[in-house]
Amino acid sequence: MNRGLKNLLAFVTITASALLAGCGGGGSHNSSGTGVLSVSIEGDAGSASGPIGTSHHLVVYRTDGTIVDEKTVDLSSGTRQVNFSNLPAGTLHLHIGLAATTGGLEIGAVDTTVPGASAPPPVVVTMAQTVSTVQVLPASTSVDVGATQQFYAAAKTADGKFVYSAPAAWTWSSDTPAFATVTSTGTVTGVAVGGSTITALYVPSSINGTASVSVTSDVPTRSKWTIMVFLNASNTLYPYAVQNMNQIEKIANNPDVRFVVQWKQVRGLDGNDDPLFSGTRRYLAAYDSTSLSSSANTIKSNLIQDLGDGIDMGSSDTLANFISWTKSKYPADHYAIVLWNHGAGWNTPRAARLISRGISYDDESGNHMDPWDVNTALAGQHFDVLAYDACLMQGAEDLLEIADKSDYIVGSEENTPGPGYPYHLVFKPFVDTPDTAVPDLAKSLVTAYQSYYASDPTWKTQQLHQSVLDTSKVVAFRNALDTLGSALVTNASTVGPVMNSIRSACGRIAPGDGYTYYDLDQVSEQIAAQTTGTTVTAANALRTAIADMTVLSQGNSHGLFMKGVSIEFGHSASMNGTYGSLYSNLKLANLTHWDEFLTNPTANP
Question: What predicted TM-score, i.e. pTM, was given to this entire model?
């Protein structure tokens, strides 16, 4: 699977089991460690009020919400004890849910925290017993202004056993909401510098427990680079999200180069039945030297914000909010952003009309961003490097939309492999030598990408390409394209008879997907070779402008014809029909005469 849309549509016909067998990012949640947690469940209920059932679902989470392990026990089978082994180090969240029968709705729960690899003490859970105390964890902690911390409350007997409680049995409060607020489920948010006492009341017994939270200043510190990744895995690319995060963690060991990721995935969407979490989260990447050597489906990055469900990653407003938030919280001398998703250049292939042109397809909302939406999202912002980890986005149409938003733009004229960038390689020079000139750092996204896939048996036989474009040269490029478009229209009667010959002499991009994208340098070369007069002059001038704009362009042995930037080169019949109906919305159509050429039946039969 690549990051193009035709493959997205075909993918939904593949079963989840086949997907996980053939793609990265799947596998067990179990992770290595030395801790063993023993949980005993008492089957005999007491006389006090409270939920009673036979089915018990036990889940161990990391504090960022990723699952370490889970088990289900039915007391009717005689099982009374469950052991979790090989637990990782650190504080873990233990959730035990109670249902009346196997597969039933959860009617009661116990939530607490346990130490991981340090041999946690055994846990005993009982039903309908008299509650004597309430435990609130963490007992004390600190959070930054604007940050959140999840607290857990548990009812306990006089001898320390945990008692199942119904979901509605608890109320939470903060004694000083001006400093810290708390939700009905125990999530505390720092509001202002100060201290608060958080209280959890067990309503049936009117017994409460407390914890303290200190809210500290969140004064941002400046680094040399902040690299943002807008990771929209709310679609068929979800199997590669964990892999790419692990690659980032492998190199996140320089405090002067910070990776900030907004990541969405949705349980049950496109076959994603077992995600690490469901919803949208913001992470600050944390170094993990073993991230690529472990088979576990885990991450160790710092969860900064859990945005919950319903965030639309196909919205320009969502992207704009992520950028503004990141720049305010993680200021830097230089900024890079990666748009991680499926891409379709300026348009969708005619064979896949269900999904239209653009990038960042959110299958939950059904929305995506058109090229002009990306421009809107980046309004008022500027980057040193903008990179598309997506198919087909290094086109003239997309370039002109955002040329004023980034000094350098990196992307592919062609489809890109499903696993996307090898982040631990393409961004390693940023981490190792952050003071290197920006264009030289940007080149690493091209060279490391090509080197990585050159030995990949699945992808080395495909047309692969990446380039870096210098946007300071875009105005000259745009003017040259405009001149060529005008010359083609002016000389329609002489260029029209050879236009199909020109098209046939050029390599088509994503030839199996229904697009009519072509490398613009190769098209210009053939126009210069097969026409005469002012058209030849204009075509050669455009080739010079492309070369001046292109910092580096590399195609593999199957993609050598691609020199930096593609363009729409469909027949006038399709450009005057449904396929080309939105071309006039593009800046390119308003700033050049290329669209007049495309729709001219004489010049472009």
Answer: 0.73
